[in-house]
Amino acid sequence: MARLGLILGDQLNANHAVLDALDAERDRLAMGEIVDEASYVPHHVKKIVLVFAAMRHRARELQNQGWTVDYHLFDSNSEIRSFGGLLDQAVAAHDIDEVLIAQPGEWRVLEHLQNWAGERGVKLTVLPDRRFVSELDDFNDWAAGKKQLRMEFFYRQVRQRTGLLMADGEPVGGVWNLDAENRKKWSGDPPAPRVKGFEPDDITQAVIDLVGAQLKGFGSIEGFDYPVTRQQAQAALVDFIENRLAYFGDYQDALDDGEDYLFHSRLSASLNIGLLDPMDVCRAAEQAYGQGDAPLNAVEGFIRQIIGWREFIRGIYWYLMPEYAQRNTLGHDQPLPEWYWSGETQMRCLAKAVDQTRREAYAHHIQRLMVTGNFALLLGVLPKEICDWYLAVYIDAYEWVELPNTLGMVMHADGGVVGSKPYAASGKYIERMGNHCKHCRYKVKDTLGEDACPFNALYWDFLMRHREDFESNNRMRMMYRNVDRMDEEKQSAIQARAEWIRIHINDL
Questions:
Q1: Is 471 helix (H, G, I), strand (E, B) or coil?
Q2: How many CB atoms lie within 10 A of CB 298?
């Protein structure tokens, strides 16, 4: 009897628990390009290319290391359409009595595999997922009994445990969080360096050809240049550390009409499929600070995104699923505007964000939170629709990271689990952080009238509609004082304008 290790497409890390638990001479590995996984949402085609190409490169590495890898190539007409189908084939062919996996990133995958194992009478062993700094038990122990779960306090615990940016038990610089220093508007100086890309090799080009011929997803496949091996991902990390980290902190919230990346890393896709180890990434940034190559606000902000938000969000997901996915605390029910898929809107910030997403399968966190996300919140979009959109269109999106960020942080649909207040803002925020408004057909300074920025009326209407939900929130009292300064006539006019926007949303 043999054991089989299932290597999932988003778990390509070298320090994989399954590899340590198996014997390469006796046991086997299975990997597969699964039809259902490629199509359960209309994934960006570049995301599918990334996962399939990285899987094929990883399978070759494992074979060169002496592993027997049963690899299933994608075929839209294949009878094998799920992980269960892939395992059925392996069990029948090789007399498998135990399957080993690392904890999947997504609840639905774990449930599917557990159901399969129960139905087939095969032992399923679930091992830790080493793509993260924290074990799930670490988060669960921290969260137990707390009335509020706040990233900042979990982040401090992880800082202390890892020693990152710590000295004698205290945070380097004397403060834990330098986010207040990271909100500058970029005016073109220093110039934004080009992100390092990678020319597709024969393996990747074969995947590009396959996806182009057999899969209909979101976005453009042209110009695919993401890292697909650990060596390429490491080169991308070095490029970021040397060329962009120094200014990442200052301009991480900035928006620009002509730049897709500014000083962002574009490393999340590599982290989320295991091509980069989070501690290696953080140590590289910490070393840059120690050598005087990057300031503390940049390095702390970058490390916080990885060992703070990334770990916290993953913990929230597994702590509260599966019930969490159904939450809709604010009762929003509007359909997602059609132009979230096409980009055909006259609102410049939204058109640019969707266009970039269609081209690159990427947008940075402020574009996601304060442009596409903020607008969906103000409009009152049904949470499931915007969650499915984020899951589909971004190259780094998997449900463990997408769902709490979108349902919780973007839509505040979880009742305040992730964020203490909704990230709602008018057009003034977008004007303050970038130059989209200069190129927009709508006037950011106006709230009423057909040429007024739609964000503005929707923002004030959101506050009025949800007064009972938020007026007692200490962080929102100033906003409600501003509402109260409006007379009834103006409030009614704003509500009428907001309702007009909702009715005519696909024409804006």
A1: coil
A2: 26
Segment 353-370 mean pLDDT: 95
- For residue 358, what are its two tokens? 């269609």
List, for residues 318-330, the tens digit of each pLDDT value: 999 999 999 999 9
Q: Say how many Å lie between the first and final Cα of the chain, rounded.
A: 63
Q: How much is the average pLDDT of 472-481? A: 91
Tell which of 254, 286, 320 closes a domain: 320
Residue 252's nearest CA partner among 186, 331, 327 is: 186
Helix (H) or strand (E) segment spanning residue 123? strand 123-127
Residue 468 has pLDDT above 70, yes or no: yes
The 3-state DSSP class for residue 159 equals helix
Give the start-end residues of each E strand in 334-441: none
**Average pLDDT, integer, range 296-304:** 95
Residue 209 within a domain: no
pTM, two decimals, is 0.94
| Domain total of the chain | 3
pLDDT value at residue 172:
94
Q: How many CB atoms lie within 10 A of CB 374?
A: 27
285 and 346 housed in the same domain: no
Residue 438 belongs to domain spanning: 339-507
CA distances from 372 to 200, 250, 347, 363 (A): 31, 22, 11, 10
CATH of the domain at 23: 3.40.50.620
Task: Mark 186-225 as b/e (b = at least 16 C-beta within 10 Å).
Answer: beeeeebeebbebebeebbeebbebbeeebebbbebeebb
As given in the structure block, the two tokens for residue 249 are 């902190």
For the stretch 13-27, pLDDT in tens is 999 999 999 999 999
- Beta-bridged to residue 443, according to DSSP, are 452
What pLDDT does residue 1 have?
Answer: 66
Share of the chain above pLDDT 70, in %: 100
User: What is the residue-averaged pLDDT of the chain?
Assistant: 95
The answer to whether residue 238 sits within a structural domain is no
Same-domain status, 299 and 356: no
Which positions ≥6 away from 422 have C-beta within 8 Å?
A: 377, 412, 462, 470
- The residue-averaged pLDDT of 208-229 equals 95
Residue-level length of the chain: 508
CA-to-CA dists, residue 187 to 7, 66, 208, 251, 365, angstroms: 45, 53, 37, 10, 19
Claim to verify: residue 305 and residue 343 sit in the same structural domain? no
Alpha carbon distance 400, 194 (integer Å): 30
